[in-house]
């Protein structure tokens, strides 16, 4: 996709989407970008213009299968193993500010798996040498950082680092937006999650409709792989994001039925040559690595029932050439040096019922207790073009558990899950317990 065609597609997509609007704003959106018709808040207090919130999760899991890296290549050796883990999957701080006259700022700072604890020390036991010590792994990310101008509820303009709302999890990734202890495994495997890009977007809401259209840099095909498909393609090892290629995303939400949201979203963009690595050889001519994703997701919340589901399909053109190109890269490159599929797919559905709705006293105390079931299917190597199909990438997963909300902002989760692989491999059962919060501090 060349730049002329991309801009044309962007213009057509925006023109079509702006005939629609967005849902009544969520609590998060109200706090970060108040729906005041473009005007300032009634109070001019700096403190009142500031919004602070966040979410976080703490988890314990016991996996009744091996974590050895050879468990799929030599499954017969690792059939009777188990391991346990404590983790802080995500801890996020929201900071937002309303400047007035429709201008606002929003940001998210995310600590994954406890953050990174590293320091440089002088080791007296090693002749005074400098030594870097890593006390804890993890990541610290700036997940969102954007400025928004609201012209009217039907039209807002954002610029900066934003979440790309493809699918269910990227658009709603807070821990009270899914029943499982961890985020839905399918979307979290084959796509970037949470997917974020420095980008420009138009969005808005009108009546029962919502939209968002986004222009952003393309993915980097060097970072694609067999287990995660394009999952790592949005990352960059450099201090900047390379943008030799561009991409377009669109999303539409509908709320016509009370308690029900229906959403479709799509993405298209080239990924090959979106790198600093030399690709000028004539054998690479005509290779684009176009990533196309189509997604449908829904959520229902009424009558003490919550149900959610999604279906995502993705296609990568020129996957055979990209696989060979990546495998041939130097060992010190940032590439996984793996084959990548031409097609990947994931789908999932979950439903839960609030048992505490049967008790008037617990309902009056605003407590909820959901018993839920969940099914996921995903395959990061669903279709290959001259590359090796890997059976262990094809998975079904069934989960059952509970979510207890002692208060609105806190949820305690427990689950038993069972991943079903093809007969040549070992299935993967696990038990997980977690506690999470989502809320605003002011």
Structural class: mainly beta
Termini Cα gap: 45 Å
The shape is globular
* Nearest-integer average pLDDT: 87
Strand content: over 45%
- Secondary structure: helix percent: 10-25%
Spatial extent as radius of gyration: 23 Å
Unreliable parts? 1-28, 30-43
Largest sheet: 16 strands, antiparallel, barrel
Order of helices and strands: HHHEEEEEEEEHHEEEEEEHEHEEEE
Count of separate DSSP helical elements: 7
Q: What is the tally of beta strands?
A: 19
Q: What is the topology, as strand order, of the major beta sheet?
A: 1-3-4-7-8-9-10-11-12-13-14-15-16-17-18-19
Explain briefly what this protein structure is.
With 442 residues, the chain is mainly β.
Would you mind describing this structure in some detail?
The chain has 442 residues and is mainly β. Helix content is 11%, strand content 47%. Strands 1-3-4-7-8-9-10-11-12-13-14-15-16-17-18-19 form a 16-stranded antiparallel barrel. The chain is globular. 38% of the residues are buried.
Structural topology:
Blueprint: H1 3-17, H2 27-32, H3 46-49, E1 50-63, E2 83-87, E3 91-100, E4 103-112, E5 117-123, E6 129-136, E7 139-152, E8 155-163, H4 167-171, H5 185-190, E9 196-206, E10 209-217, E11 246-254, E12 260-270, E13 290-302, E14 305-316, H6 319-327, E15 343-354, H7 360-364, E16 368-383, E17 394-407, E18 410-420, E19 428-440
List keywords for this structure.
mainly beta; 442 residues; disordered N terminus; 16-stranded antiparallel barrel; 7 helices; globular; two-stranded antiparallel sheet; 11% helix
């Amino acid at each position: 996709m060349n730049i002329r065609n991309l801009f044309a597609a962007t213009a057509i997509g925006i023109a079509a989407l702006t005939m629609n609007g967005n849902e009544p704003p969520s609590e998060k959106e109200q706090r970060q970008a108040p729906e005041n018709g473009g005007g300032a808040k009634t109070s001019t207090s700096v403190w009142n213009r500031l919004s602070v919130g966040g979410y976080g999760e703490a988890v314990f899991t016991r996996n009744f299968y091996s974590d050895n890296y050879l468990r799929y290549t030599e499954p017969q050796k690792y059939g009777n193993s188990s391991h346990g883990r404590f983790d802080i999957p995500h801890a996020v701080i929201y900071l937002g500010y309303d400047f007035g006259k429709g201008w606002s700022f929003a940001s998210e700072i995310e600590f994954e798996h406890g953050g990174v604890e590293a320091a440089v020390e002088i080791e007296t036991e090693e002749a005074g040498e400098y030594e870097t010590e890593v006390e804890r792994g993890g990541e610290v990310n700036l997940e969102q950082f954007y400025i928004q101008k609201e012209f009217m509820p039907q039209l807002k303009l954002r610029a900066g680092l934003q979440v790309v709302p493809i699918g269910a999890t990227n658009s709603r990734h807070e821990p009270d937006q899914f029943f499982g202890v961890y985020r839905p495994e399918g979307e979290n495997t084959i796509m970037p999650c949470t997917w974020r890009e420095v980008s420009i977007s138009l969005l808005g809401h009108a009546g029962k409709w919502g939209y968002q259209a986004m222009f952003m840099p393309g993915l980097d095909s060097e970072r694609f792989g067999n287990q995660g498909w394009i999952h790592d393609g949005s990352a960059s090892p450099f201090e900047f994001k390379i943008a030799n290629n561009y991409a377009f995303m669109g999303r539409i939400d509908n709320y016509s039925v009370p308690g029900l949201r229906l959403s479709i979203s799509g993405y298209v963009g080239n990924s090959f040559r979106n790198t600093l690595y030399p690709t000028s050889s004539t054998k690479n001519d005509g290779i684009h690595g176009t990533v196309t994703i189509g997604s449908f997701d829904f959520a229902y919340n009424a009558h003490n029932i919550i149900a959610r589901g999604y279906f995502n399909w993705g296609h990568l053109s020129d996957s055979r050439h990209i696989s060979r190109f990546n495998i041939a890269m130097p060992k010190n490159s940032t590439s996984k040096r793996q084959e990548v599929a031409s097609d990947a797919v994931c789908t999932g559905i979950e439903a839960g019922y609030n048992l505490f709705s049967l008790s008037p006293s617990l309902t009056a105390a605003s407590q909820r207790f959901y018993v839920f079931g969940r099914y996921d299917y995903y395959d990061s190597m669903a279709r290959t073009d001259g590359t090796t199909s890997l059976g262990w990438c094809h998975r079904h997963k069934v989960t059952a558990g509970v979510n207890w909300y002692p208060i609105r902002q806190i949820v305690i989760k427990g689950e038993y899950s069972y991943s079903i692989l093809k007969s040549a491999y070992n299935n993967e059962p696990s038990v997980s317990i977690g506690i999470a919060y989502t809320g605003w501090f002011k």
